[in-house]
Amino acid sequence: MSDIARQVDGTQPASLSLDRSLLRALPTPKVTFDHPEYSPVSSDDDNNAPAAPFVVALFELSKDQLRFLKLRCSGDRNPPTAVSTFQAVAAHAWRCACIARGLLPSQETRLHTITDVHGRLKPPLPPRYLGNAAVRISVTTKVEKLISHSIRYGAEHIRRVLNNIGDEYVRSVVDYVEVTGISRLPASGKLLRTDLRIVSWLSLQSYAGDFGWGEPIYVARPHFSGGGHGYLVRSPRKDGGVGLTLALEVDSMERFKQLVRQSAMVRPSEPTPQRRLWNSNLDLVVVRWHTPSVYFYRRARILNNFFDAAVLEAALARVLVQFYPVAGRLARDEDGRIEIDCNAEGVLFVVAEADCTVTYFQCGGVALGVGMQHYVADGYTGINFINSWANLARGLPPTIRPFIDRTLLRARNPPTPSFPHVEYHPPPSISTEVISPSPTSNKATATVVRMFKLTPTHIDELRARVPPGSPKFSLYALVAGHVWRCACLARGLPADQLTKLYIAVDGRQRLKPPLPDGYIGNVILTATPIATADEVIAGVPEAAAKVQGMLARMDDKYMTSALDYLELQPDLSALAKGPHTFRCPNLGLTSWARLPIHDADFGWGRPAFMGPGGIAYEGLAYVLPSPTGDRSQSIAISLQAEHMDEFGKLIYQI
């Protein structure tokens, strides 16, 4: 219509399909599914009560906020679960609404929506079918389950229900309506206070209606029949964002706003260099994910502004001025190589009540979670970024002065590797079946993460296992050898099974000349001792010797050769670490023992604990220092569930 109004050349009214008998019920209706969304609303007192006063608000979510929501819906899965924009936003809004309304954990809650069925029928409806071709859908769960889990729980429920909507289901709806009778169906505007209804307009060309005076600046529904109704539309700015227009009870809306909006893109507080930052080969072979870490803080009794979000956000904006690549975005150069576009778009800062950046607990404590894109930073860089952020929050200078030039790690010209660099070769595969779960066990593919503390007594016992007169082993070599040995035993590896241990080695001080202290980027190379299982399980000294022997090779000559080796590889992405790298029969053990992971004092004290926020891959582990400096170390490790129980016993059998 708008094209005709503007007299666009060649515009003709669209040829429509007017045959609505395509959606006629069967002569003998056949209802093959339950359709609770079309069931009459129960007549209890709550439902018969007058509708509560409600207000309408618009919530805008940027492209980056949507990306963050989808990341939370995917969790630690690799590859991430495909989550649509509707599923992510609807799950977030549904969960926030349950909390804002103060629903009881035992109550049942439903998310209602409608879905277009043009393409779900067989054969599909004609593209220009004129008529209603949408069915009601509802997703049901208990409030307790929805709010005690992350939004991934709700998103997965929504996705499963929508994926089941096919031709048979739609035909069942048509026949159900025929059998029930239109007059007996509940009006779609009637909602229980426990429920939410969100309709997606994302697939509609909402902003194409230009009658000659420009496109509309916003499109929305003019009337809402009650609280709990919402509509999701694309941003008129065409910037990848969306807008959620939601009606909610007056007494719940303010709380809902706090929950759904407690996120912001924090940008550098001052102008920063606008440039493209070249990534070294070491930046391009890291694990492709955001490295999650979490800090737990106990509440200080005498402080009233404990973990003030405004203080944290302001300090974050200041630290991004100096660590400006962190506020950029990944991009590709003309050759397709990944680089960092230092465009100051900012980082996502979230304050919430569960699984977000800053989480407040009822006991008064706080959890601070940070996800650092591994292309941007390794552990040393990431820890110094967080510690500098903490220092600025309490009026101190950053811990380091960032050095932002990754060309220091360019390969030689011409590249001349002098070692075979087995660390980049494919890992050994399992040659025979290891300890297997029973066919009916759910542990067949499940992995679990656990943490084991090695006390000073355990450390001393490890040292005592080394025979007199033997070479002196570093503490890391002893701990790594012990963990490697326990993993081989717990997995039940046969004696001749090859196993590879991946050890992250910081090259900053091993290269000649050493890199500047403030070098920002990945300087992690990998030492990979390889042995048969019987060689590893022979004893702690034997396993530690293999670890220490490989670490001794990691000097300037070896590391420079590694840079040259990577330069000659046609596809660095093929060498990137992932779930295939560490899984049985192999292991990865990264030590944070020498990193200042407990120095992040934002003004309210040091963290009571710091560690990985999740371990995505089976066979990956971390060594953590004690927060109290008592010489103890903790091992955070991910293993197959069937192997973890045995590992937990072996780790203390020194």
TrEMBL record:
Keywords: Acyltransferase, Transferase
InterPro entries noted in UniProt: CAT-like_dom_sf, Plant_Fungal_Acyltransferase
The keyword Transferase is assigned to this record: yes
An example molecular function term from Gene Ontology annotations: acyltransferase activity, transferring groups other than amino-acyl groups
Signal peptide: none
Ranges in a coiled coil: none
Highest taxon in the source lineage: Eukaryota
Family note: Belongs to the plant acyltransferase family.
UniProt-recorded name of the protein: Shikimate O-hydroxycinnamoyltransferase
Protein species of origin: Ananas comosus (Pineapple)
